[in-house]
Design the sequence.
């Protein structure tokens, strides 16, 4: 769950692992401020729709051995894009 924003615009919060609706572990989580996908794959549930990261990983790897019961995707209150910050980050990379 996102709890606050860090000094570089990254999301800071707590990640929780649930197994059969029971919380098994939790710890601090910091996300990267960049984009994770160059192909615009969107949000995939039950499979990976993006390019593989290794020759050992075959794309479209389907989830097996369980059941997806619920998915929560929360962009919080600051879900909008800060265009100036995104442009500055892009220019810094080039």
Sequence:
């Amino acid at each position: 769950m996102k709890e606050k924003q860090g000094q570089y615009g990254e999301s800071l919060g707590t990640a929780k692992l649930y197994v059969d609706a029971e919380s098994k572990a939790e710890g601090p989580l910091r996300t990267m401020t960049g984009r994770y996908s160059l192909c615009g794959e969107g949000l995939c549930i039950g499979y990976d729709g993006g390019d593989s990261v290794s020759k050992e990983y075959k794309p479209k790897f389907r989830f097996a051995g369980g059941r997806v019961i619920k998915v929560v995707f929360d962009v919080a209150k600051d879900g909008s894009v800060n265009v100036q910050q995104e442009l500055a980050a892009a220019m810094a990379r080039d």
User: Anything to note?
Assistant: The CA atoms of residues 82 and 88 lie 10 Å apart. The chain has one domain: 2-93. The two ends are 32 Å apart (CA to CA).
